[in-house]
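[Q] Does anyone have a clean structure-token version of this?
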Amino acid sequence: MSEFEEVFNSYNSGNKQYSKEEYAEYKKKEKQEVYNLIDKTAEKVVTNGEELKKYLDTQSKFDQYSVGNAMLVLAQMPNATQLRDYNGWQNVGGYVKKSPKEVKILEPADSYMREDGTVGTNYNVKKVYDITQVNIKDKARQMRYDNKILLKMFLQSSNAKVEVVDYIPNTDKKAMYDMNNDTLYIAKGAEAPSIFYEVTQEIAMQEIGEDTLKSYCVSYMLCKKYNIDVSNYNFENVAISMQSMDAKQIREELEPIRNAMENINSRITENIKQLARESKAKER
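[A] Here you go.
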């Protein structure tokens, strides 16, 4: 937390000045409101397939955010694309506009020991701002990749060995992960975009195991992130499977999906960086 945050917050709520006790109570109330918003949003995202899709859209853009923080972004600014705090934007040459719309998320603070000996983490509320609230000269352009590069990046993100075959026995699928052999089989003759749907689901199974609903969600997020048509995805059954859960259980059910997405996308991102380095080397 910034050492000046108390000064800055004293100008909130009509320049109201806080005593030390009032400020502590204000921060406690603010944090509780954020936790309540997470719970409320968790319950909402499983009401139907469309609501769950909105959450997955947000998590796909912010794959390094926790499930809770992705829900906070969804609840406060679902159209956000790039979020940083004041200092974060200044570090990249951006300046937050006057009276911007803020998004409150949680960031880890200090750790503590519970009575049972386990270690817990305290969280502070952090205010971040979307790029639409910022004056900045150099805005990152959205990259688009042709189908060959995309397939190469997806296959290189596989933790299992990739083997190209003429066909996959006993199925009409063009991609299949064999857990026993730890091999991802790819059949020749595959076409886009269907090959992307199958490959991403099979790669997700390497992270999650044979949970088709969760792998389906990861596949959607990966395709969404890399601008592959996702109009054929339907999440009604996924939402129904979680409707009997409470807010905490819903977040726990979504956690493996989020983790798989982050792990796979981090490998894809590194592969893209390596491809860019190789391209620059060829130019030189």
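[Q] Thanks! Anything notable?
[A] The two ends are 44 Å apart (CA to CA).
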